[in-house]
Design goal:
This protein is of the alpha/beta class. It is built from twelve helices and 16 strands. Its cofactor is pyridoxal 5'-phosphate.
Length: about 375
């Protein structure tokens, strides 16, 4: 397919940019000996799992279905973490997964022996209570009252008997200085226990493929932990795998005025890019500027009945009109995995740009995809 043949809205994953990210991640593995996993919660487009498998060591799951997806489509190392597991699902999780990370002392007592008996590696998620984030408490695992991870005052020798690894995930879209600071807090609290482990998992939130990311400091952190404690270090980035490797194409359906100019698109913040409202954040838009920066400013919104279904205010060198095609950037991550059919909205097509200008339709959704989610 050619670009002009694509139907909007559609997610377009750009293979060339995906490979660029994967090459950076593979280089980190090769230079440090760490192992990097795809965090599927950010990007689960299994059509490209064979490609990802050529570069990464496996995948990290947040539940049984993601674990099954990785086992079926990637077939490499398979790790899982959940704040709590369903008892009836644990036998299948043990069959599918290599590392099974438990969240609390109660979960350790309930499942550790079962995991060991199944020949798999049990781990414990720890919470250093050391926050490096500002302004986004919803994404801060170290926020006061967090349900994620076990704090040092709950750690005992008996609890860790049989536990083979420790996992901490405290970052969100951050540079390696945040990891370095966090690691100091982790070592201060949990250092005596790290020597007895087989592996340490640094979790996700590392923006490794971002242009300004300090990869040398990351390598230093990895080598320090591996050399000091004699463990295998894992990282499980999600965003870094597909960062800036996808776009969302959308068409202007209507232009109206109500104290300001408003353009209604065939894509929805609430349905197709939920992080815009949850984070919240302003997604990049090609050929646009900040409000008032260019000649014509428009508020861009979706076609749902939610009053707050607004993507943001953008300015353009031209006056938007019906039929214009807009291109939002960085739409590979936390888009397909979080979208929904609120208001009966159709899900966007999923397209792979195999080579620049050469597109392949991977999946087109229709009414049955909407209907079968209901009853």
């Amino acid at each position: 397919m050619k670009r002009e043949e694509l139907r909007t809205p559609c997610y377009v994953i750009q293979k060339e940019k995906l490979i660029k990210n994967l090459e950076i991640l593979r280089e980190i593995c090769q230079e440090t000996g760490c192992r990097i996993l795809l965090a599927q919660k950010a990007f689960s487009m299994f059509a490209v799992y064979p490609l990802i498998g050529k570069y990464l060591n496996g995948a990290a799951a947040s539940g049984l279905f993601e674990a099954r997806l990785a086992a079926e489509e990637l077939g490499k190392e398979n790790h899982i973490f959940s704040p709590a597991y369903r008892e009836e699902e644990m036998p299948e999780i043990i069959r599918l997964c290599d590392h099974i990370i438990l969240n609390s002392p109660a979960q350790v007592k309930k499942y550790k022996d079962q995991i060991l008996a199944g020949g798999k590696s049990p781990g414990l998620r720890i919470n250093p209570r050391f926050s490096t984030q500002e302004g986004h408490e919803i994404y801060d695992p170290c926020a006061p009252g967090s349900r994620l991870g076990t704090a040092i005052d709950q750690i005992t020798e008996e609890l860790l008997d049989g536990i083979e690894g420790l996992h901490f995930h405290t970052l969100c879209e951050q540079n390696s200085d945040a990891l370095s600071d966090t690691l100091k807090a982790v070592e201060e609290q949990f250092g005596p226990y790290m020597h007895r482990m087989k592996w340490i998992n640094f979790g996700g939130g590392h923006h490794i493929t971002r242009e300004d990311y300090d990869r040398e400091l990351l390598k230093k952190c990895i080598r320090h932990v591996q050399d000091t404690y004699g463990v295998q270090v894992y990282l499980e980035p999600g965003e870094a795998v597909a960062l800036n490797a996808g776009i969302l194409l959308t068409e202007v359906l209507e232009v109206m005025e109500n104290e300001l100019s408003i353009a209604i698109l065939d894509t929805s913040a609430a349905c197709h890019m939920p992080d815009v409202l949850e984070m919240p954040y302003r997604p990049p838009l090609k050929d646009s500027g900040l409000p008032g920066e260019k000649a014509f400013t428009f508020r861009l919104g979706g076609p749902t009945c939610l009053a707050g279904d607004v993507i943001g205010d953008y300015s353009f060198d031209w006056k938007l009109k019906c039929g214009d095609i807009l291109e939002f950037g960085d739409m590979a991550i936390y888009s397909m995995v979080k979208n929904n059919t609120f208001n009966g909205m159709a899900l966007p097509d999923i397209v792979l740009e195999e080579n620049p200008g050469d597109f392949r339709l991977i999946r087109r959704f229709g009414y049955q995809d909407f209907k079968t989610r209901l009853s």
